[in-house]
Design goal:
CATH superfamily: Class I glutamine amidotransferase (GATase) domain
Number of helices: 6
Helix content: 10-25%
Oligomer: single chain
Subcellular location: Cytoplasm
Shape: globular
Pfam families: GATase
CATH architecture: 3-Layer(aba) Sandwich
EC number: 4.3.2.10, 3.5.1.2
CATH topology: Rossmann fold
GO biological process, one term: L-histidine biosynthetic process
CATH class: Alpha Beta
Mean pLDDT: 95
Largest sheet: 7 strands, mixed
Strand order of the largest sheet: 2-1-3-4-13-12-11
Subunit structure: Heterodimer of HisH and HisF.
Radius of gyration: 16 Å
Length: 216
Amino acid sequence: MSAARPTKTVVVFDYGFGNVRSAERALARVGADVEITRDYDKAMDADGLLVPGVGAFSACMQGLKEARGDWIIGRRLSGGRPVMGICVGMQILFERGIEHGVETEGLDEWPGTVEPLRAPVVPHMGWNTVDAPADSQAFKGLDAGSRFYFVHSYAVRSWELEVTNPAIRAPRVTWATHGEPFVAAVENRALWATQFHPEKSGDAGAQLLTNWIETL
């Protein structure tokens, strides 16, 4: 009989701007050993780091920097250590955000701008389907009709990163539509991110989190 697979440890980074308890429960549901903390050593040592985010882009960036989260994310990714961002935790991974005419620098892991979503009804609040690439690892085991829970007024409306080296695998980008297409998720080696809330997306969200845990 084969040995049991060791439980993966995940830190939900607590920098004051995220649904940390919902994320904790969702990750525990799929078998992770979860801790909510902003402790530097624990965030660095965990198998996976989950960065939630709710509220304004600028406030989240300020809170993240005060908790040294920007440095932790950068250090983990430079070593190929998995990080996942959710909602505004995804948005701050882009180059910049513009809210009410004010531009704020993001973490610049990907080029692109988080801008107001152009739609008849904003915020985009509720369940929506997504259009994932056929080779997506995040959406493995999910059918095209799977729905995820969104709450946001801002989004990345275009994907700007071009990969011209055939030896480098391009990020897998998933789209959704609310008034216009926008980036709903990104898989880029050790860095995953979703605009929707997998921790509030029922069985579909649990499957996506399971898929992430399997990469740790």
